[in-house]
Amino acid sequence: MKKEDFKKIGVSEELAATCEKASLEELKDYIPRTRMNEVNEENKTLKQSLTDRDKQLEELKKSSGDSEELKKQIEALQQQNAEQKKAHETEMAALKLDNAVETALTAAGAKNSKAVRSLFDVTKLKLAEDGSVEGLKEQIAAVQKSDPYMFAEKEQKTNLKGFQPGASGDVKPGTEVDTSKMTYSETMAYLEQNPGAEI
Which of 33, 66, 124, 182 lies 20 to 30 Å from 18, alpha-carbon distance? Predict the structure, then answer.
């Protein structure tokens, strides 16, 4: 959690800074769920590929008669394996791109990431080697400008001046206050400001 998040729940400025440091220290070795999903998907694909290769080798052992036929089978298997490898790499790149876009949309406060994605020109998105997506910031900014309702509004702290329900303001000592018309929080605020008051 960030310092602002701690302050929102009522933690003091100094304690919020300490809590932020502790939170960051705790999460420094954290692996995002999207990365874990990528690794699991890759692991599953590699296991399937290994099983397929084992079957191919068994078939080759059985048909070890004619060397010309064997060469043809080996070439066919090599071609098939190269195609599978290319398909796997394409699938993993798409998964990494998808996860990076999802993470960026969550950070930008998208209410419905699928709806926001539908407004993107995916041909302009490119996964960089560092895991970032080139062209994504510009497209998110464009959607935020054209359709701001699709993103959560950033909370702004407002300081209201004037009458506050339950505040002692113009209540004179000895004057009865009707606490039955106050909400719980108003009653608690009134009691806090008037410690000797009876309800």
Answer: 33
